[in-house]
């Protein structure tokens, strides 16, 4: 959101590293050969000034002879409308390119202005190879590029070069160096440079250098240092002027200490009123900006109202201020934009990108479409990177992914911002596969994701959501490589990703490597991770350490903890933790916690106690709770209580197939065949069909999907014959088919056949022929695993001496040597 600051910086002398175009005009008009060129050049200039660039290009191409002025006019026009690649193309072909360094510093500055510091540095290198020798302007521009990209090493090399070329003492270069060192957080070097200027040359310490030093301190968070410098500057008879004041105000609004900013702002505000600079446009805009950025847009609005400036920069600042404060000033943001529009202000790319970001975050798609229309009408729809990125981001945030993709198609060279918007948009709207596909595409297009912790955390979360371990590992490696694993959000996502892929030991390794850098989410991620992977005791242990280290558990911590207690059979501990939720940690138990408590009691066979808990009103009687009770009744064969739970569920969630299936299992186990028929009839009459079971396996870059009895997989024949062999071998070892789990009524044989080719058995069959013996066979299933498959898998691990990890919709089952980590309760 530094767009306004960026724009303002271009207007201030310290950052104006290219000479004004007037210089070109005066300089070259004088040397034009003929009056004909002079006239055509004037026409060319007028076309460019009125933004008719296409016409200007036609005229330019038709000119029989062109001079340096013609070339530079068109190059400048392209830069001004953000068409950098066209300007660069023209620059490269200009026969006058190397006659001075001015054109080089101009084109470099243009790239920096559009955030392409890397390309500016490339240009500098090229100039050194094939162009004129560097001077203070090109050195200044390259320092600014290093500052923008935070390339401290390259910047130091430019510093050395400045000395070698005898420009090291130049005031312009020193200003560039101070700016560069401050931005790269090397403020001490900047201070040394400033104080090393000999007193005999004290005039060099002009406004520009003072401003650079004050900004440097502010940018490095040293508000007091900046304020002291501001006072020292006045004491040295360098009085703040219309250039210094806005610069200082802008720098101050980046200090995070709001009270400090407001205190300082009030002092400068008073000075501005006293000194009569209040009427200056730049000063007005900077004041508005400072108030808006320091979280006081209301005062900013008052200043704007008094000054009634027509300059869009001030209005943009206020708009950004409102947008940044989120929902609190939602109405004000929109009405300010409407006012700007009605007032006929010259809205620019910053106005549009800000209002698009606002509309995206409040999720108002209709307003978004209105802005889209205005943007197109105003001609900001193409070639304006901020606007294009904001458009993609807006559509992605409001969930119109198609429109987001359409908008992204119109961007010629998508940068990391645009890609991130698309990926985050897909992830937010649960299109995780799409999110990862776009991420891969982005990596292929060679866009660097340096230092982008948000993107890293997003893609890891998508890997976790659909449990793609192979890709997750690759992304983990990339993240280590680019150094963002030190961000706690990224490390947390990695902990969760490994846990959700069934590799909780990897989660633990990352957790341990985080040392003192953990927050409550990190602890919770591991507690939940152990719980889901059937290692409840370790969950509880981590929870205890979490409390000892002074971290506070939250709502989700308890979901993991109670789930862990229930799956590890820790009934008494679970009850204690449940009771401390509200009494100690002030967290009101929700349906998930109550469901876990019913699970906990039910698993231990204390069904009556569970029923009592529901009846006494401790838990809300919602579907989660009844489902837990029903599952417990299935394990402990409690037909009557099961009937009660099912009746409630048939009412609360009549279209959910699970209770019908469970109830029919319970009846068939109890031999109540007529009841089985009744439930199935009820299910049919209500038009409910069981969600189709689907299992998948990730192998390298591919995902293999299996559905019950399907024959779509390219290696179907091999898979089926492996399953036949598998069933024969485990039957020899004592496995007995459990027909209760068959949902089709096709007679005993039909039921056995359908059980045999359940999706998870097909997946395991495929795993046996395709996964190497040292590795676990990892299967994912969209529903809960069926009892027959669960039993079969235990035998498979024994007979074949393999490990199987199955993640179903509830938890992980780690099968090994004939037993499952869930201890047959799921
Ligand atoms: Zn099954
Ligand atoms: Zn299990």
UniProtKB/TrEMBL annotation:
Superkingdom classification of source: Eukaryota
Keywords associated with the record: Repeat
Domain DYW: 734-826
Xref: InterPro entries: DYW_dom, E_motif, PPR_At4g14850-like_plant, PPR_rpt, TPR-like_helical_dom_sf
Any single GO BP term: RNA modification
One of the record's GO molecular function terms: RNA binding
UniProt PPR repeat ranges: 67-97, 100-134, 206-240, 311-347, 415-449, 519-553
Keyword Repeat annotated: yes
Repeat found in the keyword field: yes
Designated name of the protein: DYW domain-containing protein
